[in-house]
Amino acid sequence: MESVKEVIKRYGNSKDNLIQIMLELQQLSGKNYLPDAWVKEAAEELGMPLSKVYGVITFYAMFSTEPRGKYVIEVCKSGPCHVSGSENIVHILEKELGIKPGETTADGLFTLELSSCFGACDIAPAVKIGENVHGNLTADSLKDLIISYREGLTYGNN
Amino acid sequence: METTKILSARFGKIRPDSVEEYVAAGGYEGLKKAIGMQHLDVIEEIKKANLFGRGGAAYPTGIKWEQAYAIKKGPKYMVCNADEGEPGTFKDKHIMAEDPFQLIEGMTIGAYLMGATEGFIYIRGEYMGIQRIVRSAIENAKKAGYLGKNILGAGFDFDLKVVSGAGAYVCGENTALVESIEGKPGRPRQKPPYIKNCGLYQMPTILNNVETYSCIPWIVKDGGEAFSALGTDFSGGTKLMCLSGNVAKRGVYEIPFGTTLRELIYTIGGGIPNGKKLKFVHLGGSSGACFPESLLDTKICYNDLKKNGLSLGSGAVLVVDDSSCPVDYLKAVMEFFEEESCGKCTPCREGNQRMVEILEKLTEGKGTMEDIKKLKSLAQTMKTTSFCGLGQSAPVPVITLIKYFEAEFIAHTEGKCPAGKCKMNGKGVK
Ligand SMILES: Cc1cc2nc3c(=O)[nH]c(=O)nc-3n(C[C@H](O)[C@H](O)[C@H](O)COP(=O)(O)O)c2cc1C
Ligand code: SF4
Ligand code: FES
After folding, report:
1. What is the DSSP letter of B260?
2. Looking at CA atoms only, how far is residue B206 from chain A in angstroms?
3. What is the predicted ipTM?
């Protein structure tokens, strides 16, 4: 795996690139978060006070300082998805995964989150899992979707 | 209805990151023409086009560019706002996914005029796949001599870079966006100074929306008057409209200004499905106005909308049918603003929170008439005293929904939800 230093080197050792570097590191973590040790190392490399770095990462919704699941399922709750039934989507996911928004499944596979509009309103109600957007969801298609991610993991481990 | 397509003409017809296919389909004619013209003549064409900024604030682009051109300090930066965070908006995504070269060409024309050698496209973090397409288009433009050193042999240099956001609606505000490109938290700056004088790295900055830049190549190629003639006397050209919600054919449609909202929703969008009726339209994103059927014959034109107290915003048209409850809907909208407020100023940070609390009470049948009064007064305070556009416009849906559906708000204080959406078991306070 790439080290913190290597990522910083690739983007350029400049404070301006902090957000881009942190996005990349979060992806590398495998648990969708920024480990404290990495943040400290990055702050040193960039010559920034740690408090400033945390000031940035806590400002932006995409960053987490706590480990999350391999797949973060974000359910959009903004207006267009709301009138297309996003509340049902949340309820179904809560039941299917056995967790509430903000929580991670015991197997570390899924974290459930509520999010603001991510521009998929033409296929509302929509969820975003990692980079992938899934829309026009019904109770059935949502259950199939979860199954496909669960199975993806078993195949991935073989 | 056969209408001229400017922005969506090449959608689906070319590979988005192929500069050869873009050129074969008429691309880069605008830049070539601009290079042979006097700078001020190009800006004059943009002024004649009656092009208004498509990001939401509708500032006249020709005037913005004329002012930026007159500033003598440098270096100047070209910045594109591709943050697209306004709920119900997904048009910039289509431009960047299907024809990003028109955006790149528009920015390059701007850079040529302004003498800028560096530009940034700030794309929201949620659009990772689209960032890759735009990066690839930039690389290919460089290889073909349309970006980089000595562009088209005309002796000017311009480099473009994609910068990713990381999930913050407020970064769409232009000073917050500039802060974010500098790697900081995206909190708005005090204005003045305006970014045209003092923007990115404290230097003059020309900042436009994706759709605005994308209109420029056509305007330069075919002339400002031809562009203007497509729209109304006041609003030039075409507009990408985003239809969402309870409407049969959701999606992005390019329409000439002057089309009515009714035509857009019923003729183009196929009307309301499942035998339901229209309750209201939320126009321009979450920070826009909500209004009923009676205003649907308003033309999509900055002036006509303004006369009716509306604004086009980003071009989002959310259609809401009569199974929705305005109080419940408003709660969802205000939760968005509560979440996205950057917390820098009190009216917005506290105001949105209080509003959500009150709306929670109302949807649970625990609200009073006093609470509705409080909503109205908070709305006024936020509108007049918030630091940036987020807090200033967040009350717009509050004010307009109470204006048109006050009886339903009052019914909630009596424990009744006329739409049957809020589960309060008939329990009013009194
Ligand atoms: C809270 C807030 C969010 C905004 N979000 C966006 C956005 O996502 N995209 C955009 O182009 N403009 C957005 N704007 C408007 C920009 O500040 C700015 O007016 C616009 O990008 C200028 O470009 P234009 O003249 O081409 O429209 C937002 C404004 C505010 C106050
Ligand atoms: S109005 Fe809201 S978003 Fe704007 S500066 Fe104040 S707290 Fe931040
Ligand atoms: S409102 Fe859900 S993706 Fe836009």
Report:
1. B
2. 19
3. 0.96
